[in-house]
Design a protein that fits this description.
globular; mainly alpha
Length: 257
């Protein structure tokens, strides 16, 4: 029973933090340490990632399975931009040993940096909107240059403790991209990255730890359900508030733990 509860909690952590700008990988490191699960294993990571992947597909099902509009997932323009956005993450995964950073002390420092950057970008964006000095700056457009820059911020978030959604959405809002569109694109960006991370785990993991069928089901359902409702909450939250509140949370967690 304790094992089932542990995987329920890990699914909850994965589902919530995959979309909230507080770093899913960083929180999994912290909670695995707290729960006494020194290594949940590649099998558990793959199952948890599948859960959050399906929550994205369900939430954006109207635009995910369509190619009619330019921002639909299977529109050729969106697919090309997603390829460009994914390149920095692929290069980081190929040329850097990111596993070196998956430790408690690094995550605490990274969460502090993540929180500070979220607050800074949010405050600067507010100041720029009020200042006439920045009103004549050229607008950022949805093109390959924008996709590449968003990809750089996504690649930065491959470090545990740095939030992928936080980096991508905050930067997109900072340069003036439409809120609804950048939020959707940020989560579309997660699809190829999650799929590639699953493939990487399958091909290059040292081995797959045995996980009971019941534990796997609990982990998948937990990450899927909590991921889906986290998306709903986050969209409504961003209609009224900024990521600065999540940044404050990250700073507090990094200092307290």
């Amino acid at each position: 029973m304790n094992e089932l509860i542990n995987y329920l909690i890990l699914g909850f952590v994965q589902g919530v933090t995959e979309f909230f700008p507080i770093s899913s990988s960083g929180h999994l490191v912290l909670f695995e340490d707290f729960l006494g699960i020194n290594n949940a294993g590649a099998s558990a990571e793959i199952i948890a990632h599948f859960g959050t992947l399906f929550s994205i597909i369900l939430f954006y099902r109207a635009t995910f399975f369509s190619n009619k509009n330019s921002d639909d997932f299977f529109n050729i323009n969106t697919l090309k931009m997603l390829i460009v956005s994914t390149i920095p993450a692929v290069l980081c995964g190929l040329f850097f040993d990111l596993e070196l950073f998956f430790n408690y002390s690094f995550v605490k420092t990274a969460l502090l940096f993540n929180g500070g950057l979220l607050i800074s970008l949010s405050v600067l964006r507010g100041l720029m909107k009020k200042s006439t000095v920045f009103q004549n700056l050229p607008e950022w457009k949805w093109d390959y240059k924008t996709s590449l820059f968003l990809g750089f911020f996504q690649a930065l978030a491959m470090l545990p403790g740095i939030s992928r959604s936080g980096m991508v959405i905050s930067y997109g809002l900072f340069v003036g991209l439409e809120k609804k569109k950048i939020i959707q694109y940020a989560f579309f960006m997660a699809v190829p990255v999650i799929l590639l991370s699953i493939v990487y785990k399958i091909l290059f993991s040292d081995g797959f730890e045995a996980i009971a069928f019941e534990s796997g089901i609990i982990l998948f359902i937990s990450s899927f359900v909590f991921g889906y409702f986290s998306l709903i909450f986050l969209i409504k939250f961003l209609e009224r508030f900024s990521f600065a509140w999540f940044g404050l949370y990250c700073i507090i967690i990094s200092l307290v733990l």
